[in-house]
């Protein structure tokens, strides 16, 4: 029951009690007053009438007595007037029943007024002739008492209505701080931590608001401390402290995770760079100068390489840098190597004394068995022995290399004609209950079914990723007509960034409300950093249709996690580089456990990608994750998983 309703009931009860008490006192006092007045009036009338009829009574003139009684009785103030002689015989009797049409009978029965009587002896000289009795008419008293009752009732009704109005207005103003506190609590549930700047005047409410503000500040500090601890742990174990790039451990884990994922298996290049004579430079100018030099090189390499989606840049130690670029062909690799060397040699440090060499290897189909590092190291040694160039590229010849124009035509035709094949990989909760199925794409190229790693770099190269996403969603909408299942679909960075795609998906969801209720859209964490505003707009717009949004490849972007407080996300998918051999990596265990705590405090699920062994799945349970996906739990298949 609301506070206003309780207050209204309390006011009503108080008014009823006051009304009853007031009526009891006022009406019954008035009744006593009226009775006493009528009693006196009846007695005076009886005395006067007894004196007036004494002569007629002596003469026993009943007609005259009746006439004199009628004069008094006809005025209507009396209920009964009677004259009896000494023998008790009623000589004259005038009587009328008590009838008050304007007063309800229940009221008359409730306050019953005694009959006011007056008696007087009729005497002529020294002789008693009879007795006159006058009974007052109570109808007028009932009418006046009913009028008093109604006036009191209307007065209290008006007072009650006025009290209701004042209570409502007062509550509106008094409870405004409480409504702000309610909104403040709801904001905390949304991972927002606002403080009320304007405090109420009422001491009790002001104390409550101050306590809420202190609690909000404390929760915000605890949340930020947890995030900072997790980020510092990630930096300590996965980030090179001098350059801010990935370290050797992080690079190897991310490269392995990429090659095992759906995106693996396509074009790629690995580059090894080395700065010569760094030790002599440190001895001459100091270690701090050497660290600044390494940071300058990192700041030159990273912007050029991060233009390629999924590129990994790392410092392996000392003066060695390692870079992996997926989705790049041989000619683009040559251009990139030349560009990197050119940019590095424009830095204001003696490049002749400190030459930077680059060895690269390109593979048309990168796999774990490609021995990229050993071949890139051989290319680096070759570059260091060259007289003119500072870089060397080794390539793996392939008879199946397709020209760019042919790739564009092939992909455009497959997408336009919706010739994609959808595969599904199950995502389970920790109890092996099916949460949803992730939609994966296959293309039939030259009679062979290729996974995304074989064609996705070319799709992105020719700016067809938004068209591919439209095609996948359209095919899924047709499939969902027969299957009432939960699905997740990955969106490309280009789709998120394009206003035209965001407008299209709004229209698409309005036409397919059933799919919308069963749909999870997955976006890479890097998209949040590169297209933050567009991503927030997408989340807000699709949430209106019941679509949930998830972040995958979570944890590798190396960014602050504070943005999680402001985004209504469904779940986070930890990148498989943190899950691989999780049972033996204590640094990753602590990091993943911290991510689980952060996700749960934000009301999000935390799922694992790339679960391949029972040991990894058991460790996921111990760390508090909510589920996962991977070859251990279910491989991609054309048929939907059961559950």
From TrEMBL:
Listed SUPFAM superfamilies: EAL domain-like, Nucleotide cyclase
Taxonomic classification: Bacteria, Pseudomonadati, Pseudomonadota, Gammaproteobacteria, Cellvibrionales
Residue ranges constituting the GGDEF domain according to the UniProt record: 266-396
Record NCBIfam families: GGDEF
Gene Ontology molecular function, alphabetical: cyclic-guanylate-specific phosphodiesterase activity
Name the UniProt record assigns to this protein: Diguanylate cyclase (GGDEF)-like protein
Record organism: Simiduia aestuariiviva
Keyword match rRNA processing: no
EAL domain boundaries: 404-643
Source superkingdom: Bacteria
């Amino acid at each position: 029951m609301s506070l206003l309703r309780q207050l209204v009931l309390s006011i009503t009860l108080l008014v009823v009690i006051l009304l009853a008490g007031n009526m009891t006192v006022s009406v019954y006092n008035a009744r006593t007053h009226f009775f006493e007045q009528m009693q006196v009036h009846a007695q005076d009338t009886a005395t006067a009438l007894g004196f007036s009829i004494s002569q007629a009574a002596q003469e026993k003139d009943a007609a005259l007595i009746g006439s004199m009684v009628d004069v008094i009785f006809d005025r209507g103030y009396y209920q009964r007037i009677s004259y009896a002689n000494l023998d008790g015989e009623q000589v004259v009797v005038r009587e009328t029943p008590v009838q008050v049409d304007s007063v309800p009978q229940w009221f008359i029965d409730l306050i019953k007024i005694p009959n006011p009587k007056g008696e007087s002896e009729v005497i002529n000289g020294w002789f008693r002739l009879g007795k006159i009795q006058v009974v007052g008419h109570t109808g007028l008293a009932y009418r006046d008492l009913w009028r008093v009752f109604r006036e009191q009732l209307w007065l209290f009704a008006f007072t009650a209505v006025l009290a209701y109005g004042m209570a409502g207005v007062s509550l509106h103003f008094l409870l405004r701080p409480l409504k702000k506190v309610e909104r403040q609590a709801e904001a905390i549930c949304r991972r927002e931590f606002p403080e009320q700047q304007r405090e109420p005047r009422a001491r009790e409410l002001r104390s409550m608001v101050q306590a809420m503000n202190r609690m909000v500040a404390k929760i915000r500090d605890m949340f930020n401390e947890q995030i900072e601890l997790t980020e510092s742990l990630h930096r300590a174990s996965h980030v090179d402290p001098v350059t801010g790039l990935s370290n050797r451990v992080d690079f190897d884990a991310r490269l392995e995770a990429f090659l095992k994922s759906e995106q693996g298996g396509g074009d790629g290049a690995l580059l090894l760079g080395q700065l010569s004579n760094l030790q002599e430079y440190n001895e001459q100018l100091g270690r701090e100068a050497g660290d600044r030099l390494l940071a300058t090189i990192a700041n030159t390499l990273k912007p050029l390489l991060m233009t390629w989606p999924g590129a990994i840049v790392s410092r392996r130690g000392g003066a060695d840098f390692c870079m992996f670029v997926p989705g790049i062909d041989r000619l683009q690799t040559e251009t990139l190597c030349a560009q990197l060397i050119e940019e590095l040699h424009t830095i204001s440090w003696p490049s002749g004394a400190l030459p930077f060499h680059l060895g690269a290897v390109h593979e048309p189909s990168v796999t774990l068995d490609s021995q990229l590092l050993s071949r890139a190291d051989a290319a680096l040694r070759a570059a260091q022995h060259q007289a003119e160039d500072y870089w060397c590229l080794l390539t793996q010849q392939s008879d199946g290399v397709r020209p760019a124009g042919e790739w564009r035509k092939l992909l455009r035709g497959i997408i336009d004609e919706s010739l994609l094949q959808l595969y599904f990989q199950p995502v389970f909760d920790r109890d092996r209950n099916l949460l949803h199925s992730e939609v994966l794409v296959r293309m039939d190229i030259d009679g062979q079914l290729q996974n995304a790693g074989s064609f996705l770099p070319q799709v992105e190269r020719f700016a067809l990723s938004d068209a591919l996403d439209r095609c996948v969603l359209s095919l899924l909408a047709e499939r969902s007509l027969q299957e009432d299942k939960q699905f997740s679909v990955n969106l490309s960075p280009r789709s998120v960034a394009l206003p035209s795609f965001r407008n299209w998906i709004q229209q698409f969801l309005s036409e397919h409300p059933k799919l919308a209720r069963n749909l999870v859209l997955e976006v890479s964490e890097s998209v949040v950093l590169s297209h933050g505003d567009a991503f927030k707009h997408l989340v807000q717009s699709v949430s209106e249709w019941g679509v949930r949004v998830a972040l995958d490849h979570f944890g590798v972007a190396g960014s602050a996690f504070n943005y999680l407080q402001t985004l209504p996300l469904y779940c986070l998918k930890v990148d498989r580089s943190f899950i691989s051999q999780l049972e033996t990596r204590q640094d990753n265990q602590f990091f993943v456990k911290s991510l689980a705590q952060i996700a749960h405090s934000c009301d999000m699920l935390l799922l694992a990608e790339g679960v391949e062994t029972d040991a990894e799945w058991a460790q996921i349970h111990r760390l508090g994750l909510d589920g996962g996906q991977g070859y251990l739990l279910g491989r991609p298949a054309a048929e939907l998983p059961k559950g």
